[in-house]
Amino acid sequence: MLRRGLALGGGLLLLILIVLGVKGCLDARANRKLSDYARNVTQIVEETHQTSASFFKLLEEPGSGSVTDFVDQVEADRSAVDSEASRIDGLSAPGDMSRAQSNLELTYQLRASAMDKIAEKTDDALGNAGAEKATEVIARQMQKLLAADVIYEQVVRPEVDAVLADNGISDSDLPKSTFLPDEKWLDPTTVSDALGAVSGGESSVSGVHGTEIAGVAVNGTELIEGAPTTIAGAEGVEVEVSVRNPLESTENGVGVSVTYEGTTVTGEIDELPAGETVSAVIPLTPAPKGEVTIEVEVEPVPGEEVLENNEASYTLSIE
Fold this sequence. Notes:
Number of domains: 2
């Protein structure tokens, strides 16, 4: 009986040691995954800091390079942020990191979205036409960069560091990450001044650029300047503006506006290839009634010199 008791006790002790050993291995494995996750995030965050430094140094000190060089560098920084965002999305969040990972992905989605828009509008902001509007868009994207910084600092870092601390990991805390170095960049004037220093603010567009109004129709009825047109408007009023690109360069983001009774409504043609005509359909809300004059305008594209054919005025009688 004694021998049997000793054997049973020995077996139970061995089982306990095996369980403890397995648990220790699993805990160590889980901790390694957490440490690896924090290390991967840290590496991407540090690369993002370098991208931010490159971009804002370019704004602060554009140097004597050409406008094309400036635009290309902005595009390179945009591409870098897009790549960093993709790598963040590809991370596998271990244990309790899923919530922190979701907020981290949001941080980088905001950064990538802002840089995409900034890169898209930089060429316009450096041109002669539409520069003010493009600069305002860029300043608004700076607000998005600021929002991403707040999410990272106030949500992501505390969540990640808390999970690490709960698992006894004290040497893998995330670094700070501030993409927007100074809130002065939220001011369109600051952005405009910075871009104005790029090779004297000369336009970077090449080739011959221009658009013209090819025709305007309301509810399917073609309008003629100087000839009042009667329109049935019981079910609403919709203006279709046909814009032609008679020259040799594809235009992107061509703005179209219709003004009536003190109200302006806008539309946009995403792409207008050379030699083609594309229409923008603009519903008038609120719908006018009775006799009304509408003024149609196509916003000048960068590099456009002839503007007389970008505007037209029509008189309608809406029944």
